[in-house]
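Q: A small favour: would you put together sequence and structure tokens for a protein?
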Amino acid sequence: MIAGLIFATEAAEDRAEALAATLPFGGMTLIEYQARLLIGCGAGQLMIAVARVTPALLAAVNRIARRGVTIDVVRSAEEAAAKAHPLASIVVVADSLVTTDQAMRAIAFAQPDTLMVTSEATTAAVERVDADHVWAGLAALSAARLKEIAGMPREYDFQSTLLRVVVAGGAAHLQLPAAAKRAGHGVERQSGALASRGNAVLAALANGRTGWPDRFVFTPISRFALPRLAAKGVPHWAAPAAAGVLTLGGLVATWWGSTGVGVLLAVLGIASLSTGSLLSWLRGDDRRAIAQEAAIAAIAALAVLMTGVAASVGDVSATPLLLAIIGIAAAAMVERSRARAGWWWGSPAGYPLILAPFALAGFAWAGLGVVAAYAMASLAAAVESLRGKA
């Protein structure tokens, strides 16, 4: 069992009345983002270590609780030790720490009494561990170790005492991932700088997609749009609604003979869902993110199929429709194979991108042929990949 211990004691540097943990970050508060990462690693219990409770902190705690986890607000190591499950592996998150999913997963699945460290005394550092390492703000410890810390005098600083006791116990060291450094991992208590770090984390989130359609088309769009959408608090339904309107417009355009415009609108709808799914993931709504990813595949299939129908009607030939069906079937089998995709493999978002220039130029039938051939090549690669694992 994984439990989280999040420190939320320090005041914001530019808002003395507010806790740094409740500063805005990526469309939520920093503590909500930290909790979302812990819950994503399987944490079933969260303990929030506080020195004072503010209305903003209470509101954030209530929003976190809606995700179905047990939350306890504690004021000391003694209270935390009493609340923690005796068999839990406790993941500690330092006060005001901005990190990434990759770093959180690395520490969450490490053995108890492990510190994430870095050799660079930058903003990624919380406190020095030894002559060569500084603590990077994440740790894993056992409930027994937490009880040992609870035996210390209450006037000791909880976070600092925790670090010293774990170090004295011979904690293992786990290096901070380089990707987390690049994404802005570190402690931040100033609202403006925290917003910049939030943008870096959002950019890293968008960069996590590796297929060529995302890398060269949709990720640049998401990197530009995500920070702005998060800062404005755009509702969760906005991206799906926009995608629905664009897709409907594409179907109408295709019906009236503008096949190229129809495919182009479908691509814009996919871009909307691509950004919307990342925004949902950031806000901790994994189910809505998965639903939007599935909707991308549905829009892509619909765009290819409707283009095939329109081309068949216009050419008075069944060949375009047959090519569309072959492409969709092959693409569906690639997705169902769950083989580890190469960067060049076809993906649902990529097929309308390939089809669009052909359709705009009036050669939809040729675009459908390219899509079908590309999907078949991807299917062949998927089969070979699975055979290699057999």
Notes: The CA atoms of residues 44 and 69 lie 5 Å apart. The mean pLDDT is 88. The first strand starts at residue 2 and ends at 8. The first helix runs from residue 30 to 40.
